[in-house]
Write a structure and sequence with these properties.
By secondary structure, the protein is of the alpha+beta class. Helices cover 39% and strands 16% of the residues.
Amino acid sequence: MAKDYVRLWKDVASTTDEGKAVRKLAEVLVDKEGRTFMSSLECKDAELCIEILDNVGRNSHLPPLRHLRLFHQGIAEHKLKTVEKQAFFVTLRRLAGIHGRLPDSMMITGKIEVEDEIAASGGFADVRIGRYMGRLVAVKNMRLSEQDDTLMIRKVNVSDHFLAALTILQQFCKEVILWNTLSHPNVLKLAGVQGNMEKGQFITVSEWMAHGNIMQYIKNNSVNRLELVRGFAFPATPSTEMR
């Protein structure tokens, strides 16, 4: 008998029992058809699901969130099977990409002091030195043009797990979700994102690396390149095989 994913999601969105919400959501996401259904959620439902998935992934108790009004203490730690954890992560990353939206927990609201001078530049961003909570940080400002059409992200069609016409904003959100889950001594930790996502005006904040990127470091220092390769070639990453 086929599962009624609409009913299951309504149960998730309406319950005040966080344990029940997690169990019902897991029941949806362990099935390929269920993950396809979740990918088709409209904006408000998708935003709520993103917040729930983020809370589950971090296993933390949080104060009430704007989109988690029913969960007074956030989502407590729950024992999920490996396949369920994978499904939760993949769905979070997919929904963030489709809707160009990040969980509230990744958004920085505090003041960041940023220098005017550009310290480095890439294809889609400029990097400046900033100061946040008393620490030097790298502030990456994304360069988006009107042609990137970030306001059209909610009209992307999804079919057979294929995300068509990804905008820079959508791809950015997917990469930030992945970056935020990485935990390794040699992987730079993301502090968060600040700005207006829908208008394409946002920055990423991470620890400032005084010696520059890997190429600059090698050029200016006598180092064992093989050890450097070993250091960043084998970081621990979440499984993304369920695509």
